[in-house]
Amino acid sequence: MAEQSTVQSLDRAFDLLETLCRSRNGMSIGGLSAETGLHKSTVHRLLASMCARGYVQRDAETSVYRAGMRLCEMSSYIVDNLDIVERARASLERLEQCTDETVHLVMRDDKDIVYIHKVDNGSSAIRMFSRIGMRLPLYCTGVGKAILATWDTAEVRDVWQHSDVHAWTEHTIVDEDAFFREIDKVRQLGYALDNEENELGVRCIAAAIRGRASYAISLSAPVSRMTDQRVAELRAPLMAARDEIARALGGGRF
User: Please, are residues 50 and 39 in contact by the beta-carbon 8 Å criterion?
Assistant: First the structure.
């Protein structure tokens, strides 16, 4: 019974923490209670423990709770410990220097991709909303489509059917037949495009890293600059960086 109780407490604490992470402006105990279905006293007790460890912060004036910076600190440790980031870092920095475009490295996590490294183009007139730790669906990102194109069609279909497919922008592909035509095109070209599908004003070219991929890299730029001609120019350095990273990974299981 004691073990079951401990697991239940952990589940409840994670429910609260995940709810707070998704909340833009924080939440009160009452709001968290209504959102999670937990009694207010349980919410208060669990929040007190998480506040003590820095995972949650409480505004003394408003009694609003927010996810704490301790989470950012821990996520940075996770990223630093990802071997692929260290092995890919130099290649990604060279890619940014030779293209003068923003570079991303992502990893697959279930039906999503997670940004694990980013090299900003300091001269760009706009800033990408992407950030390390950000999570987006596989189906509506260039990096996600590049990864999916290396999988069997049955696996891709399973991801599509279990994703919350909706239009992030007016350009998002939400029709299943159109999506699979896009995946076939990626397989033929060897790279994927994101034509403002999750962020208006931004276009990306992406390539998956090795075999049945779980990682991918991309170059992103304002759509006004990322013309078809520019995409063609970026393909070679992107693929070269992809191959360089694959060689750096050697026999690792990625």
Answer: no
For helices 70-80 and 83-99, the axis angle rounded to 10 degrees is 90
The pTM (predicted TM-score) of the whole model is 0.71
pLDDT in tens, 59-76: 998 999 999 888 877 776
Closest CA to 170 of 133, 148, 140: 140
Q: Which residues contact 217 (CB under 8 A, 6 or more apart)?
A: 88, 92, 95, 103, 104, 105, 106, 143, 206, 207, 209, 238, 241, 242, 245
Residue of 100, 96, 97 lying closest to 117 (CA atoms): 96
Question: Encoding tokens for residue 185?
Answer: 């095109």
CA nearest 191: which of 182, 200, 180? 182
**CB-neighbour burial class of residue 152 (10 A; exposed 0-12, middle 13-18, buried 19+):** exposed
Distance CA 205, CA 220 (A): 7
Residue 254 and residue 200: Cα distance in Å, rounded? 31
pLDDT digits (tens, 9 = 90+) for 15-29: 999 999 988 889 999
Closest Cα to residue 207, out of 189, 195, 222?
189
Q: What is the 3-state secondary structure (H, E, C) of 112-174?
A: EEEEEEEECCCCCCCCCCCCCCCEEEHHHCHHHHHHHCCCCHHHHHHHHHCCCCCCCCCCCCC
Q: How far is CA 81 from CA 74, 77, 136, 213, in A?
A: 11, 6, 22, 20
